[in-house]
Amino acid sequence: MADVYNIGALMRVLPDDPLVIDIGANAGFFDILLLSKIKNAQIYAYEPLNSNIERMRSIASSNRRFDKSVTINPFAVTGVSREMLRLYAQDTEDNQVVASSLKGFNTDNTKELWIPAISFSEIMANIPRAKIDLLKMDCEGSEYDIVLNTPADVMRRVERMLIEVHDIDSQFNIDTMSRYLGELGYGVSYTSINGFCYALEACKK
Asked: pTM value?
């Protein structure tokens, strides 16, 4: 399993018992890697696709640490509160890795799904700690809705972010995201994954 999020580096900056929110958890790969290095992490994982949720639940049934440390939440996450969110996904039962709320995000996304949704503000309202140590997002274009439409004071409760950022158009792109997070008081760096996708890290100054 490739460590694309550089868990080794995270070990040096996160506390021994970090509170983590994972938006777009897929089948829990990031969570497994994090728990292999930081055993006392507490993770709230949000994943909208049933196939991935079932994989996570299968892992939890056979992995005691995962079951104890990861709270699986079957929701799409939004910036603006709404009950349901329409996603466009690959039309397959075996692999729904790429799903987006943006219709033209991927030409393979031909299947429409309506998924229960929760806003990031609602998530944060139910978190007892004053701050979140790490927010990881891999949500295929929804990063803009979540970050830009969540009140600034709520976003600032996050100490560190790892976000997969996609260039969508002239309005929503890596420059927009970097500039906005900088205005919120974060130091931002990013590396290119491909021609339109970036791995962004933001840390509170």
From this structure: 0.93
